[in-house]
Amino acid sequence: MFAAMRQAVNDPQAGFCRDCLTPQQRAAARRCEHCGSPRLLRHSELYRLAIAHIDCDAFYAAVEKRDRPELRDKPLIIGGGKRGVVSTACYIARINGVRSAMPMFKALEACPHAVVLPPDMEKYARVGREVRDRMTALTPLVEPISIDEAFLDLAGTEKLHGMPPALVLARFARAVEDEIGITVSVGLSYCKFLAKVASDFNKPRGFAVIGEAEALGFLAEQPVTLIWGVGKAFAATLERDGIRRIAQLQAMERGELMKRYGSMGDRLYHLSRGLDERRVHADHDAKSVSAETTFDTDLASPEDLVPVLRALSEKVSARLKKAGIAGRTVVLKLKTRDFRLRTRNRRLADPTRLADRIFSTGHELLRKETDGTRYRLIGIGVSDLSPDDKADPSDLVDVAAHKRALAEGAIDRLREKYGTKAVETGYTFGKGSRGRPQREG
Protein backbone atom coordinates (compact mmCIF):
# COMPACT_ATOMS: atom_id res chain seq x y z
CA MET A 1 0.00 0.00 0.00
CA PHE A 2 2.79 2.40 0.96
CA ALA A 3 4.67 1.71 -2.28
CA ALA A 4 1.70 2.96 -4.26
CA MET A 5 1.54 6.00 -2.02
CA ARG A 6 5.20 6.87 -2.06
CA GLN A 7 5.05 9.77 -4.51
CA ALA A 8 2.11 11.42 -2.74
CA VAL A 9 3.58 10.75 0.70
CA ASN A 10 6.60 12.79 -0.31
CA ASP A 11 4.32 15.85 -0.49
CA PRO A 12 3.07 16.47 3.07
CA GLN A 13 1.31 19.67 1.98
CA ALA A 14 -1.09 17.51 -0.06
CA GLY A 15 -1.57 15.17 2.90
CA PHE A 16 -4.09 12.35 3.07
CA CYS A 17 -7.72 11.66 3.90
CA ARG A 18 -8.34 10.55 7.48
CA ASP A 19 -11.39 8.52 6.47
CA CYS A 20 -10.10 6.45 3.53
CA LEU A 21 -6.34 7.12 4.02
CA THR A 22 -5.94 8.06 0.35
CA PRO A 23 -2.98 10.40 -0.34
CA GLN A 24 -4.03 13.62 -2.02
CA GLN A 25 -2.53 15.03 -5.20
CA ARG A 26 -3.63 18.66 -4.79
CA ALA A 27 -2.68 20.72 -1.72
CA ALA A 28 -5.58 23.11 -2.23
CA ALA A 29 -8.32 20.47 -2.40
CA ARG A 30 -11.03 20.87 0.25
CA ARG A 31 -12.38 17.33 0.00
CA CYS A 32 -10.84 13.93 -0.52
CA GLU A 33 -10.23 13.22 -4.18
CA HIS A 34 -11.34 9.62 -3.62
CA CYS A 35 -14.24 9.56 -1.11
CA GLY A 36 -15.24 13.23 -0.84
CA SER A 37 -14.58 13.50 2.91
CA PRO A 38 -13.59 16.95 4.22
CA ARG A 39 -11.34 15.37 6.88
CA LEU A 40 -8.00 15.99 5.18
CA LEU A 41 -4.74 16.15 7.12
CA ARG A 42 -1.89 18.32 5.86
CA HIS A 43 1.24 19.69 7.47
CA SER A 44 4.74 20.52 6.29
CA GLU A 45 6.25 18.10 8.85
CA LEU A 46 3.47 15.52 8.61
CA TYR A 47 5.67 12.59 7.63
CA ARG A 48 8.66 13.42 9.85
CA LEU A 49 6.99 13.44 13.30
CA ALA A 50 6.71 10.33 15.47
CA ILE A 51 5.67 11.28 19.05
CA ALA A 52 1.93 10.92 19.58
CA HIS A 53 -0.62 11.34 22.34
CA ILE A 54 -3.86 9.41 21.99
CA ASP A 55 -6.88 10.34 24.09
CA CYS A 56 -10.26 8.59 24.03
CA ASP A 57 -13.11 11.07 23.58
CA ALA A 58 -15.45 11.42 26.60
CA PHE A 59 -14.43 7.85 27.36
CA TYR A 60 -16.92 6.70 30.02
CA ALA A 61 -19.85 8.32 28.25
CA ALA A 62 -18.73 6.98 24.86
CA VAL A 63 -18.63 3.42 26.17
CA GLU A 64 -22.12 3.75 27.65
CA LYS A 65 -23.53 5.21 24.42
CA ARG A 66 -21.96 2.36 22.47
CA ASP A 67 -23.71 -0.16 24.73
CA ARG A 68 -26.99 1.76 24.89
CA PRO A 69 -27.87 3.00 21.39
CA GLU A 70 -31.01 4.70 22.72
CA LEU A 71 -28.73 7.24 24.45
CA ARG A 72 -26.80 8.16 21.31
CA ASP A 73 -28.51 11.51 20.71
CA LYS A 74 -29.15 12.36 24.37
CA PRO A 75 -27.01 14.34 26.83
CA LEU A 76 -25.30 11.83 29.11
CA ILE A 77 -23.54 12.39 32.43
CA ILE A 78 -21.48 9.74 34.21
CA GLY A 79 -21.16 10.45 37.91
CA GLY A 80 -23.14 11.08 41.04
CA GLY A 81 -22.49 8.91 44.04
CA LYS A 82 -21.40 10.18 47.45
CA ARG A 83 -19.49 13.18 46.14
CA GLY A 84 -22.22 14.21 43.76
CA VAL A 85 -19.91 15.33 40.97
CA VAL A 86 -19.55 14.72 37.23
CA SER A 87 -16.95 12.13 36.23
CA THR A 88 -17.49 12.46 32.47
CA ALA A 89 -20.01 14.22 30.27
CA CYS A 90 -20.72 13.46 26.63
CA TYR A 91 -20.23 16.24 24.11
CA ILE A 92 -23.96 16.97 23.88
CA ALA A 93 -23.98 17.64 27.62
CA ARG A 94 -20.79 19.71 27.32
CA ILE A 95 -22.42 21.94 24.73
CA ASN A 96 -25.02 22.66 27.41
CA GLY A 97 -22.35 23.70 29.90
CA VAL A 98 -21.63 20.46 31.79
CA ARG A 99 -17.99 19.89 32.74
CA SER A 100 -16.02 17.17 34.51
CA ALA A 101 -15.79 17.62 38.31
CA MET A 102 -18.82 19.93 38.27
CA PRO A 103 -21.24 19.41 41.18
CA MET A 104 -24.13 17.30 39.95
CA PHE A 105 -26.79 19.81 40.96
CA LYS A 106 -25.11 22.48 38.83
CA ALA A 107 -24.75 20.06 35.92
CA LEU A 108 -28.46 19.29 36.03
CA GLU A 109 -29.28 22.98 36.24
CA ALA A 110 -27.28 23.51 33.05
CA CYS A 111 -28.69 20.42 31.35
CA PRO A 112 -31.91 19.31 33.11
CA HIS A 113 -32.78 16.68 30.51
CA ALA A 114 -29.48 14.80 30.85
CA VAL A 115 -29.41 11.08 31.56
CA VAL A 116 -27.25 10.30 34.61
CA LEU A 117 -25.53 6.92 35.00
CA PRO A 118 -23.17 5.68 37.73
CA PRO A 119 -19.68 4.74 36.50
CA ASP A 120 -18.94 1.11 35.67
CA MET A 121 -15.18 1.05 36.19
CA GLU A 122 -14.80 -2.66 35.46
CA LYS A 123 -16.31 -2.22 32.01
CA TYR A 124 -14.29 0.91 31.28
CA ALA A 125 -11.07 -0.86 32.28
CA ARG A 126 -11.91 -3.72 29.93
CA VAL A 127 -12.50 -1.39 26.98
CA GLY A 128 -9.39 0.59 27.90
CA ARG A 129 -7.34 -2.61 27.66
CA GLU A 130 -8.77 -3.27 24.19
CA VAL A 131 -7.59 0.14 23.03
CA ARG A 132 -4.21 -0.32 24.74
CA ASP A 133 -3.68 -3.68 23.02
CA ARG A 134 -4.13 -1.99 19.65
CA MET A 135 -1.61 0.67 20.64
CA THR A 136 1.05 -1.89 21.53
CA ALA A 137 0.52 -3.50 18.13
CA LEU A 138 1.77 -0.24 16.60
CA THR A 139 4.93 0.21 18.69
CA PRO A 140 6.50 -1.28 21.82
CA LEU A 141 6.97 2.26 23.14
CA VAL A 142 3.55 2.92 24.68
CA GLU A 143 3.42 4.94 27.91
CA PRO A 144 -0.03 4.79 29.55
CA ILE A 145 -1.09 7.95 31.34
CA SER A 146 -4.53 6.82 32.46
CA ILE A 147 -7.21 4.33 31.55
CA ASP A 148 -8.04 6.22 28.34
CA GLU A 149 -4.86 7.94 27.14
CA ALA A 150 -1.22 7.20 26.37
CA PHE A 151 1.91 8.49 24.68
CA LEU A 152 3.41 6.56 21.76
CA ASP A 153 6.78 6.78 20.05
CA LEU A 154 6.56 5.42 16.50
CA ALA A 155 10.07 6.38 15.40
CA GLY A 156 11.60 3.59 13.33
CA THR A 157 8.30 1.77 12.68
CA GLU A 158 7.87 2.90 9.06
CA LYS A 159 9.34 -0.29 7.60
CA LEU A 160 7.22 -2.42 9.91
CA HIS A 161 3.94 -0.79 8.88
CA GLY A 162 4.81 0.21 5.34
CA MET A 163 3.74 3.78 5.99
CA PRO A 164 4.80 6.77 8.13
CA PRO A 165 3.52 7.28 11.70
CA ALA A 166 0.86 9.84 10.70
CA LEU A 167 -0.88 7.31 8.44
CA VAL A 168 -0.47 4.53 11.02
CA LEU A 169 -2.20 6.68 13.64
CA ALA A 170 -5.04 7.63 11.31
CA ARG A 171 -5.58 3.97 10.48
CA PHE A 172 -5.52 3.15 14.20
CA ALA A 173 -8.15 5.82 14.99
CA ARG A 174 -10.41 4.49 12.25
CA ALA A 175 -10.02 0.90 13.47
CA VAL A 176 -10.89 1.84 17.07
CA GLU A 177 -14.03 3.58 15.87
CA ASP A 178 -15.08 0.72 13.57
CA GLU A 179 -14.13 -2.23 15.78
CA ILE A 180 -14.44 -1.00 19.38
CA GLY A 181 -17.19 1.55 18.82
CA ILE A 182 -15.65 4.63 20.47
CA THR A 183 -13.60 7.51 19.07
CA VAL A 184 -10.15 8.86 19.86
CA SER A 185 -8.28 12.10 19.25
CA VAL A 186 -4.64 12.13 18.19
CA GLY A 187 -1.90 14.68 18.74
CA LEU A 188 1.33 14.33 16.71
CA SER A 189 4.51 16.29 17.38
CA TYR A 190 8.24 16.03 18.05
CA CYS A 191 7.91 15.97 21.87
CA LYS A 192 5.48 14.74 24.51
CA PHE A 193 4.39 18.18 25.72
CA LEU A 194 3.20 19.37 22.33
CA ALA A 195 1.74 15.99 21.37
CA LYS A 196 -0.49 16.24 24.46
CA VAL A 197 -1.42 19.82 23.59
CA ALA A 198 -2.27 18.82 20.01
CA SER A 199 -4.56 15.97 21.07
CA ASP A 200 -6.86 18.48 22.77
CA PHE A 201 -7.52 20.28 19.48
CA ASN A 202 -10.66 19.61 17.46
CA LYS A 203 -12.10 16.98 19.82
CA PRO A 204 -13.89 14.66 19.30
CA ARG A 205 -12.31 12.63 16.47
CA GLY A 206 -9.48 15.14 16.26
CA PHE A 207 -6.06 14.78 14.69
CA ALA A 208 -3.75 17.77 15.11
CA VAL A 209 -0.10 18.28 14.29
CA ILE A 210 2.40 20.70 15.87
CA GLY A 211 5.75 20.79 14.12
CA GLU A 212 9.11 21.93 15.40
CA ALA A 213 9.35 24.91 13.04
CA GLU A 214 6.12 26.45 14.28
CA ALA A 215 6.44 25.62 17.99
CA LEU A 216 7.84 28.94 19.25
CA GLY A 217 5.33 31.05 17.35
CA PHE A 218 2.41 28.81 18.27
CA LEU A 219 3.31 28.78 21.96
CA ALA A 220 3.88 32.55 22.11
CA GLU A 221 0.19 33.18 21.47
CA GLN A 222 -1.07 30.76 24.14
CA PRO A 223 -2.01 31.46 27.78
CA VAL A 224 0.38 30.22 30.47
CA THR A 225 -2.22 27.69 31.59
CA LEU A 226 -1.39 25.63 28.50
CA ILE A 227 1.84 24.56 30.19
CA TRP A 228 1.57 21.23 32.01
CA GLY A 229 1.48 21.89 35.75
CA VAL A 230 0.22 25.48 35.64
CA GLY A 231 -3.11 25.13 37.41
CA LYS A 232 -5.40 27.80 38.79
CA ALA A 233 -3.32 28.54 41.87
CA PHE A 234 -0.01 28.90 40.04
CA ALA A 235 -1.67 30.78 37.18
CA ALA A 236 -2.88 33.28 39.79
CA THR A 237 0.72 33.66 41.03
CA LEU A 238 1.90 34.37 37.49
CA GLU A 239 -1.01 36.76 36.99
CA ARG A 240 0.07 38.75 40.05
CA ASP A 241 3.50 39.02 38.43
CA GLY A 242 1.89 40.29 35.24
CA ILE A 243 2.53 37.10 33.27
CA ARG A 244 -0.42 35.89 31.24
CA ARG A 245 0.96 34.72 27.89
CA ILE A 246 3.69 32.23 27.09
CA ALA A 247 5.40 34.92 24.96
CA GLN A 248 6.25 36.69 28.22
CA LEU A 249 7.95 33.54 29.54
CA GLN A 250 9.89 33.20 26.29
CA ALA A 251 11.33 36.67 26.87
CA MET A 252 12.64 35.76 30.35
CA GLU A 253 15.98 34.18 31.22
CA ARG A 254 16.10 30.74 32.82
CA GLY A 255 17.88 32.07 35.91
CA GLU A 256 15.23 34.72 36.48
CA LEU A 257 12.41 32.19 36.20
CA MET A 258 14.12 29.78 38.60
CA LYS A 259 14.85 32.55 41.08
CA ARG A 260 11.16 33.50 41.10
CA TYR A 261 9.51 30.10 40.90
CA GLY A 262 12.10 27.48 41.87
CA SER A 263 12.00 24.17 40.00
CA MET A 264 8.75 25.22 38.36
CA GLY A 265 10.64 28.10 36.78
CA ASP A 266 12.90 25.61 35.02
CA ARG A 267 9.84 23.86 33.60
CA LEU A 268 8.39 27.20 32.47
CA TYR A 269 11.61 28.09 30.70
CA HIS A 270 11.86 24.85 28.73
CA LEU A 271 8.22 24.15 27.91
CA SER A 272 7.53 27.76 26.88
CA ARG A 273 10.15 27.21 24.18
CA GLY A 274 8.87 23.80 23.16
CA LEU A 275 11.84 22.06 24.76
CA ASP A 276 10.85 18.71 26.23
CA GLU A 277 13.44 15.92 26.29
CA ARG A 278 11.30 13.39 28.15
CA ARG A 279 11.19 10.10 26.31
CA VAL A 280 8.25 7.78 25.92
CA HIS A 281 8.85 4.94 28.37
CA ALA A 282 7.12 1.64 27.77
CA ASP A 283 5.16 0.60 30.82
CA HIS A 284 2.61 -2.17 30.55
CA ASP A 285 1.95 -2.27 34.30
CA ALA A 286 0.17 0.25 36.48
CA LYS A 287 2.44 3.23 37.02
CA SER A 288 2.86 4.78 40.42
CA VAL A 289 4.71 7.47 42.34
CA SER A 290 5.76 6.44 45.83
CA ALA A 291 8.19 6.98 48.68
CA GLU A 292 9.25 4.65 51.47
CA THR A 293 11.74 4.40 54.29
CA THR A 294 13.29 1.59 56.32
CA PHE A 295 13.69 2.21 60.05
CA ASP A 296 16.85 1.70 62.04
CA THR A 297 14.71 0.02 64.70
CA ASP A 298 11.29 -1.53 64.22
CA LEU A 299 8.35 0.73 65.08
CA ALA A 300 4.83 -0.13 66.17
CA SER A 301 3.08 2.88 67.71
CA PRO A 302 1.01 5.41 65.76
CA GLU A 303 2.97 8.18 67.50
CA ASP A 304 6.08 6.94 65.69
CA LEU A 305 4.56 5.84 62.38
CA VAL A 306 2.19 8.71 61.59
CA PRO A 307 4.84 11.48 61.37
CA VAL A 308 6.85 9.34 58.96
CA LEU A 309 3.74 8.73 56.89
CA ARG A 310 3.11 12.48 56.73
CA ALA A 311 6.68 13.22 55.62
CA LEU A 312 6.51 10.54 52.91
CA SER A 313 3.13 11.86 51.72
CA GLU A 314 4.65 15.30 51.28
CA LYS A 315 7.50 13.79 49.29
CA VAL A 316 5.08 11.94 46.97
CA SER A 317 2.99 15.09 46.57
CA ALA A 318 6.05 17.13 45.61
CA ARG A 319 6.99 14.60 42.93
CA LEU A 320 3.47 14.61 41.51
CA LYS A 321 3.34 18.39 41.38
CA LYS A 322 6.76 18.61 39.75
CA ALA A 323 5.71 16.11 37.06
CA GLY A 324 2.29 17.69 36.54
CA ILE A 325 0.43 14.46 37.28
CA ALA A 326 -2.01 13.09 39.84
CA GLY A 327 -3.05 9.65 41.09
CA ARG A 328 -6.43 8.15 41.87
CA THR A 329 -5.46 5.19 44.05
CA VAL A 330 -3.55 5.61 47.32
CA VAL A 331 -1.38 2.64 48.30
CA LEU A 332 0.03 2.02 51.79
CA LYS A 333 3.00 -0.34 52.10
CA LEU A 334 4.21 -1.92 55.33
CA LYS A 335 6.89 -4.54 55.95
CA THR A 336 6.89 -6.41 59.25
CA ARG A 337 9.95 -7.27 61.31
CA ASP A 338 9.90 -10.79 59.77
CA PHE A 339 9.90 -9.25 56.24
CA ARG A 340 6.25 -9.96 55.44
CA LEU A 341 4.77 -7.33 53.16
CA ARG A 342 1.37 -5.73 53.69
CA THR A 343 -0.17 -3.47 51.03
CA ARG A 344 -3.45 -1.67 51.43
CA ASN A 345 -5.06 0.62 48.86
CA ARG A 346 -8.06 2.87 48.42
CA ARG A 347 -9.41 4.31 45.18
CA LEU A 348 -10.43 7.97 45.40
CA ALA A 349 -13.41 9.55 43.68
CA ASP A 350 -11.03 11.70 41.61
CA PRO A 351 -7.26 12.04 41.12
CA THR A 352 -5.17 13.90 43.69
CA ARG A 353 -1.73 15.42 43.95
CA LEU A 354 -2.22 16.95 47.41
CA ALA A 355 -0.20 15.79 50.39
CA ASP A 356 -3.26 16.40 52.57
CA ARG A 357 -5.44 13.88 50.70
CA ILE A 358 -2.65 11.33 50.24
CA PHE A 359 -1.81 11.47 53.95
CA SER A 360 -5.38 11.44 55.25
CA THR A 361 -6.22 8.41 53.09
CA GLY A 362 -3.01 6.63 54.07
CA HIS A 363 -3.65 7.48 57.72
CA GLU A 364 -7.07 5.80 57.58
CA LEU A 365 -5.47 2.70 56.08
CA LEU A 366 -2.69 2.73 58.69
CA ARG A 367 -5.10 2.87 61.65
CA LYS A 368 -6.26 -0.68 60.91
CA GLU A 369 -2.68 -1.93 60.84
CA THR A 370 -1.41 -0.39 64.10
CA ASP A 371 -2.38 -3.41 66.16
CA GLY A 372 0.91 -3.85 67.96
CA THR A 373 2.73 -5.29 64.94
CA ARG A 374 6.25 -3.94 64.63
CA TYR A 375 7.28 -2.64 61.21
CA ARG A 376 10.71 -2.21 59.67
CA LEU A 377 9.43 -0.28 56.61
CA ILE A 378 6.59 2.04 55.69
CA GLY A 379 5.74 3.50 52.30
CA ILE A 380 2.97 5.53 50.65
CA GLY A 381 2.22 6.09 46.99
CA VAL A 382 -0.40 6.72 44.35
CA SER A 383 -1.21 4.83 41.15
CA ASP A 384 -3.70 5.22 38.26
CA LEU A 385 -1.82 8.30 37.11
CA SER A 386 -3.17 11.05 34.89
CA PRO A 387 -2.41 14.69 34.05
CA ASP A 388 -3.25 16.94 37.00
CA ASP A 389 -5.68 19.23 35.16
CA LYS A 390 -8.65 17.33 36.65
CA ALA A 391 -7.16 16.71 40.07
CA ASP A 392 -8.72 17.68 43.42
CA PRO A 393 -12.04 19.28 42.44
CA SER A 394 -14.06 21.09 45.11
CA ASP A 395 -15.52 18.69 47.66
CA LEU A 396 -19.19 19.22 48.49
CA VAL A 397 -18.91 17.02 51.61
CA ASP A 398 -15.63 18.22 53.09
CA VAL A 399 -15.97 22.00 52.73
CA ALA A 400 -12.71 22.57 54.61
CA ALA A 401 -10.75 20.66 51.96
CA HIS A 402 -10.55 23.74 49.73
CA LYS A 403 -9.00 25.78 52.54
CA ARG A 404 -6.48 23.03 53.23
CA ALA A 405 -5.57 22.89 49.54
CA LEU A 406 -4.99 26.66 49.49
CA ALA A 407 -2.84 26.39 52.61
CA GLU A 408 -0.83 23.59 51.03
CA GLY A 409 -0.24 25.72 47.94
CA ALA A 410 1.06 28.54 50.14
CA ILE A 411 3.38 26.11 51.95
CA ASP A 412 4.68 24.82 48.61
CA ARG A 413 5.55 28.36 47.48
CA LEU A 414 7.38 29.09 50.73
CA ARG A 415 9.33 25.85 50.48
CA GLU A 416 10.31 26.57 46.89
CA LYS A 417 11.64 29.92 47.96
CA TYR A 418 13.23 29.13 51.34
CA GLY A 419 13.76 25.37 51.34
CA THR A 420 11.82 22.26 52.33
CA LYS A 421 12.15 22.93 56.08
CA ALA A 422 10.88 26.51 55.87
CA VAL A 423 7.41 25.34 56.92
CA GLU A 424 6.52 22.13 58.75
CA THR A 425 3.23 20.65 59.86
CA GLY A 426 2.52 19.63 63.42
CA TYR A 427 2.90 16.00 62.40
CA THR A 428 6.55 16.35 61.40
CA PHE A 429 7.81 19.32 63.43
CA GLY A 430 10.80 18.29 65.51
CA LYS A 431 10.70 14.74 64.15
CA GLY A 432 13.84 14.73 62.00
CA SER A 433 14.42 14.84 58.27
CA ARG A 434 11.99 12.00 57.49
CA GLY A 435 9.44 12.55 60.20
CA ARG A 436 11.17 10.00 62.38
CA PRO A 437 11.11 10.49 66.15
CA GLN A 438 14.26 12.07 67.55
CA ARG A 439 15.93 9.60 69.89
CA GLU A 440 18.17 10.74 72.70
CA GLY A 441 21.56 9.24 73.24
Automatic annotation (TrEMBL):
UniProt GO MF annotations: damaged DNA binding; DNA-directed DNA polymerase activity; magnesium ion binding
Annotated site residues (Substrate discrimination) in this chain: Y60
Enzyme type, top EC level: transferase
InterPro entries to which the protein is assigned, alphabetical: DNA/RNA_pol_sf (IPR043502), DNA_pol_Y-fam_lit_finger_sf (IPR036775), DNA_pol_Y-fam_little_finger (IPR017961), DNA_polymerase-Y (IPR050116), DNApol_IV (IPR022880), Rev_trsase/Diguanyl_cyclase (IPR043128), UmuC (IPR001126)
Residue span(s) of domain UmuC: 51-231
Binding site for Mg(2+): D55, D148
Catalytic reaction annotation: DNA(n) + a 2'-deoxyribonucleoside 5'-triphosphate = DNA(n+1) + diphosphate
Keywords, sorted A to Z: Cytoplasm, DNA damage, DNA repair, DNA replication, DNA-binding, DNA-directed DNA polymerase, Magnesium, Metal-binding, Mutator protein, Nucleotidyltransferase, Transferase
GO cellular component: cytosol
Stated role: Poorly processive, error-prone DNA polymerase involved in untargeted mutagenesis. Copies undamaged DNA at stalled replication forks, which arise in vivo from mismatched or misaligned primer ends. These misaligned primers can be extended by PolIV. Exhibits no 3'-5' exonuclease (proofreading) activity. May be involved in translesional synthesis, in conjunction with the beta clamp from PolIII.
Name under which the protein is recorded: DNA polymerase IV
Record lineage: Bacteria, Pseudomonadati, Pseudomonadota, Alphaproteobacteria, Hyphomicrobiales
Gene name of the record: dinB
